[in-house]
Amino acid sequence: MSESENGGRAVRDYYGRRYYVRDTPADRAGRSSAVWLAWPPMAAVGVLQYGFGAAVPALMDRNGWSLVGAFSVLAAWAVCQAGVAFPAAWLRERNRISPRTLMLLGAVLCAIGVASLAHGPGLFGAVIGYALLGGAGAGLVYSTCSTSVGKWHPDRVGAKVSLVTGAFAYGTVPFAVAAVVWLTPANLAFALDATAILLLLVVAGFGVFFRDPPADWWPAHIDPREWALQHVPGRRANAPAVQQFSPGRALRTKALPAMYLIVLAAGAVSLFNAAFVVVFAIRAGTAVAAIAVAVALFTAINGAGRSVVMRISNRLGRCRTLKLVLLVQATGQLLLAMAAASSSPGLLIVAAAVAGAGGGGFYPLFASLARDYFGDRRALEVHAMVYSAKAFAGLLGIGLAAVAVTAWGYPMTFLVATALSLVSAVAIARLQRPGLPNTLPRIPAGAPRLAG
């Protein structure tokens, strides 16, 4: 180890990873405040995704939009929200822009996006304002909150980041339920204006205190070398990366494209549920109280389940837990198809809860897999590449799904979502840890096998 001029020391563990161990009052304050600074902004911007589906009936009635037109706005929003992940991570890692600046910019863009939905000139104005500006703003806030928490808690990245990203879903429960029960075309503009102001105040108010620790920072009260060697449950199942991969090198492996495709498919199903549950339930003639319960369960379990899933993965391993999550998601789609065919309010509530359990847990799992497979040094950028698959997932799970629902109806579309979830679960077998040496010889095709 070596001492640095400002009181820290550089340490390398037995895997060759570098840590900058330092303990100052500013470090302790940054670590202790990281989660509670990130939680409120993350919950606030989640309204733009999970609240939109609940607001669609009022938007369609007030603006005369078709189902496809209304959800094309959310599909474009998802593209922009996920699309800014990699550029933001790239700029952050090179110190080109501070987290405070990103949060303040995100606050302004989100507020403009919501306000444009209230007062913008038609569908085109909603796409420009809500989707392009609001989506980019939400993506900046999401990326900055999750990465800041990860930087301040390098010893518990998965647990802490899943707690904060879960707020993106469960933090929106009051807003989604209020939209189902109270929102009408008459009060829509007032509700959106109030939401825009609240977003600006919350995101900017907490974002102004954001700052990053030094590169490779590590808390002094935890020995990084002992931490790396600790044999805790699941440690062998979630072994550290064999090598440190750059984003370009990671892209040339088989693992990263496989991750991308799985996130695309699973994310499409998750976004389809978040967007269409309210509209589907209303058209099925479900009572408002049952819809509110279904929406509350879906969003709450979708968010809270992320922390639970991470704890399970510490024992079972990331890939085994990921397969379990996607099978739960597939079960939820099958139950939703049954609810759509039977118009049963009770079955809808159960199906929404199951779909929520499987619809969010895979996001933090992939964040941890990116670190386990490709190393810590460039993990933020590598995961941003994987997360950007949500952009195409939005086109598939919201845009094309709106067309499918119009043409096929809800039962058949939910069955297609079931198949897509099952394909995602099967594709996990393609996730092979990169960088391991090929020590076993290949057996030529047609070679004779030994008996016994």
Give an account of the 3D structure:
The chain is mainly alpha-helical and 452 residues long. The chain has a single domain (23-220, 242-430), classed as MFS general substrate transporter like domains (Growth Hormone, Chain: A, Up-down Bundle), CATH 1.20.1250.20. The protein is 73% helix and 3% strand. It has 18 helices and four strands. The protein has helices spanning 25-63, 67-83, 85-93, 99-119, 122-152, 157-170, 173-182, 188-207, 224-229, 247-251, 255-283, 288-316, 318-342, 345-359, 362-374, 379-387, 389-408, 410-427, and strands at residues 2-3, 9-12, 18-22, 217-219. Strands 1-2-3-4 form a four-stranded mixed β-sheet.
Q: Features of this protein?
A:
18 helices, disordered C terminus, Growth Hormone, Chain: A, disordered N terminus, 452 residues, mainly alpha
SS content category: mainly alpha
The total domain count is 1
Radius of gyration: 22 Å
Strand content: under 5%
Work out the helix count: 18
Name the CATH architecture: Up-down Bundle
Main sheet attributes: strand count, strand direction, barrel closure:
4 strands, mixed
Q: Any low-confidence stretches, pLDDT <50, length ≥5?
A: 1-5, 440-452
CATH topology-level fold name: Growth Hormone, Chain: A
What is the count of β-strands?
4
**Overall pLDDT metric:** 89
SSE ordering: EEEHHHHHHHHEHHHHHHHHHH
CATH class: Mainly Alpha
Under CATH, the homologous superfamily reads MFS general substrate transporter like domains
Strand order of the largest sheet: 1-2-3-4
Shape: globular
Between the first and last Cα atoms, what is the distance in angstroms? 54 Å
